[in-house]
Amino acid sequence: MKKLQFLITMLILALTLGACTPGGPNAEVTATDEPTVTLPAAVETAEPMPAANTPVAESGASDCPIATENTHLLRDPSHGFCLLYPVTHKVERPNPQEVVLVVGGLLNAGDPRAMINVSEGRTAAEVADEIVAGFEGFDITPSQTTVAGEPAMVLDNVPGQDINRRVLFTHGDQLYDIYFSPIEPTDTTAIDAFMEGILESFTFIPVSETVTAADECVHPKADQQLITDEAFGYCFVVSSEFTYEQPSETNANIFVGSMMDVEHPKLMIEVIDADGQDAAAAADALAASFEGFAIERTFGDTLGYEPAERLDGVPGQDIGRVLLAVHGDRLYRLTFVPADDTQTELYGQMEALFAQVLNTFRFLP
After folding, report:
1. 266, 254 in Cβ contact below 8 A?
2. Which residues contact 182 (CB under 8 A, 6 or more apart)?
3. pLDDT by residue (tens digit) across 72-124?
4. CATH code linked to domain 64-211
5. Average pLDDT, the chain
6. In CATH, what number does 214-363 get?
7. Domain residues of the chain, as ranges?
8. 3-state helix, strand, coil in the chain (%, to 5)
9. H or E stretch covering 64
10. What is the pTM of this model?
């Protein structure tokens, strides 16, 4: 009996050692079933590291800096750059060569702003020399810095509509000319911090004529949501507490709880055929339809880079602020309520919703 137990023990030991021995001449490798882990849709898995000697893809938008709670990411593949800008600012594109970062709108010249002009054919040194020569007799202070690895010329106290600072550098065959203003000689703290954030985050990416929704749409923060409506052709960011619904082919609503809620602001969007009108003509017609009412008209706003007309005090179930813009062949009418400044708390919430939508609204490419 003891002999039998000994033989069984030796047999088990031999089988165990064989299983632990690395692949020998007669070794067999058996695939084992591993548990499948399903990740939530919102979780992104990291990309595997490239194997040794594997070519790495050309740098692109993935190399752009990561936005913080206080900044948004601007990606501009058509001009070959990306950067971070303060959430207080808005992106404007007054012409194909220029990007402007400004508070509120293009007419605001009091807060720090940056105008980024991209062109070809000249070097930074040539343009800097032209600027200095063109303002002979003025105390323009030149210095040097580095932007995204490229040497850059800095010109301080440049005369213009406002005293400004110019930063010029080239990359490839493109000249980047960034105009910072206004410069207050007695205290440059605000413009210095604004410029530092932009220049330190400035990153070159491959130039591409293809601009996608991912390039244009603003990424939401932790307590926000990105609204993207392909049928109406836009995207924008609002607080996560809002609900977005499209009750008809021409209308969309944004509200908290329900459209009957009276403790939060609401936004009603109407998208119709422009019928040949521009924003100004549409605003003229709307104002004329409420003749006798004290409607205040404001100029200088834009909606997704398009000129927009703002009308305050528009009658309705609630007093509304209406913003009108035309993009392509469609008229966009955005009505924010309540626009009644006697309702102090609600009016403040409406202003916050208006600013957030205006700053982040983009038409889809």
Report:
1. yes
2. 109, 110, 112, 113, 162, 163, 164, 191
3. 999 999 999 999 999 999 999 999 999 999 999 999 989 999 999 999 989 99
4. 3.40.1000.10
5. 86
6. 3.40.1000.10
7. 64-211, 214-363
8. 20, 35, 45
9. none
10. 0.80
